[in-house]
Design a protein that fits this description.
15 helices, MetI-like fold, 0% strand
Length: 306
Amino acid sequence: MQAEIKLGAPARPAMSQARRYEAYQGYLLVAPILLLFAGLVVYPFFNAIWLSMTDKIIGTKGQFVGLQNYAYLLRWPDFERMFFNTWTIAIVGVAVKFVVGMSSALLLNQPFRGRMIARGLFMLPWALPTFVATLTWRWLYDYQNGVFSTILLRLGLIDERISFLGNPKLALWSIIVLVVWKGFPFYTISYLAGMQGIPNEQYEAAEVDGANPWQKFRFITLPSLRHVILITCLLSLIWTSNTFEMVYLLTGGGPSNRTQVFTVMAYKLGVVNARIGEAAAVPMMFFPLLLGLIVIVSRYMLKEEA
């Protein structure tokens, strides 16, 4: 017995050395990804925080000013309107996209002739480049030659052309319509993929029990898609709140800053006026809100899994 113990004793250091070697190999394999992540995410993020606390202007080094840029933005005359517009577009846009996306997913999940063609057509708004889509809708909204005003005039619903983008009461809602049209296919394809994974036996059992279509949707479809719904709404809320191209190309923040959002404001401060420090402070003010949403949804999903 003693001889066997002595012979087996040197095996532990050899084993631990082999595991350390494998761990080093693992670190080496992961190192390029970590360096790429640090270079593309970590450094720009902390650099943006630093810039937001300086008075940097393009061509100058800039000096540390602490929270002066944030105080300056809070005193901005249109800051409340910018905050309201940003979250109105995001929240209303996400809510409408959810309804339209879920409805279209339910429709495309039904068996009918030409279903595959219809699925492809529903994806066109999402596949179309944002720049092209926005310019197309700008033409549709145009006051002089816009398609919408022309159709309404010929139907006799209006007496004169409507300035969709020049009217302070209509401009923001015109942007929301474009945001919904451009983004709802993401919801459609996500919910449709989730519906494909729901077993048909659940619907058949519910039908035997006398459930109507609304009850099957409420008690089977929605609970089965709850994680997909949370993820799509969270991602869409982040993307929609960062909308720039559609707002800038349609209205540029006008008329009279009625459609001003924080992305357009950051662009005007940083690119147009070359005030990098103040421009960096604008998105940093919205970051805690988005981070809070991510934490809340993540904790909810982890709790559901537990």
